[in-house]
Amino acid sequence: INNVGVKILINNGVTAGITVAMRFIFVALFFSPFFKRPLLRISLPLALLSFGGNACLAIALKTTTSGRTSFFSSLAVVFIPFVDRLKNGRKAAAIDRQQLLSLLFCLTGIFFMSRAALLSGHPSIRGDGFATLASLCFGSYTVTLADPRYGKADAKSLTSVLRVWSCLFGVSLAMSELVTKPGGWGNVAGAIQMGWGAFAMLGVLSCFLALAAIFQVYGQRRVTSVDSGIIYTVQPVWGALLGYLVLGEKLTRENVFGAALIMMGIVVAQLKKIRAARTA
Question: How far is Cα 280 from Cα 270, in angstroms, rounded to an integer?
Answer without folding.
Answer: 16
